[in-house]
Amino acid sequence: MIKKHFKKLVSLALAAVMVMGMSATAFAAESDANTYTTDTGITVDQSIQQSVVDNLPESTKLELQNDDGTLVFASTTYYDLETGSTSRAVMPTSDFKLTVTATRLSSSQMAADGVYGDAFKFVATGEWLVNPLYEFTDCIGISWSDDFTLYDDYGYTYTKDYNGLPFFNFDALTRNDVSAEEGVAHDVYLLLFDRQDEVTLVAKVYKANSSGSANVCASYGHVIITASSVDVSFSKGKEISMSVGFASGIKKASPAYESFDY
Prior knowledge:
By secondary structure, this protein is mostly beta strands.
């Protein structure tokens, strides 16, 4: 497959951050007074407006419906690389956006998953508003701090209309790198000449009962120049580094990062 011949090509195009800044009490799944349920069955913290949930990507909404928990943070950011006409031709202003959400999993969900303590489900979804000019192999990653341990991760692309039908392609993403207590990144095999509307990465993490403040961030890298391998490293919820070889160009929009309480 042509994508695999170009595996690990990247020029970092964007990064985004998700924040949760509430107390452990406010996060508790049992604290119904601080939550509400949408008409799609998603339980949401009172600080998040219904309009925010309505505007989430389709694959993100499905992920929120798949696990029992409370959505505690959601953010969508648009990107402009500001690197000249070549980059803008690949990913123009506001032609790509990244949505990140964090869900605190309920006690029953943790029991079903076989974990305990505090558990969160992080979802990062990149949406192509304009089909990219170059479609090689991109990269998407999520990083966190405070030694939360990864216990499940997966990713896929979603095409809203693929030969007349919606299509989820779980073969489109494979692990690039993982550090169980720092982060995970997946390669994204874009289909040549075909549109893939959304790229989604899911990371589920847990920690034994405790309290504190942690960081989490998500980044997406898009290939625009030449073939090269990609090295990924994590900085515990502050940054995801994606480096390429000498022959490749790389432009980086550094992710901001903030904290969530647990």
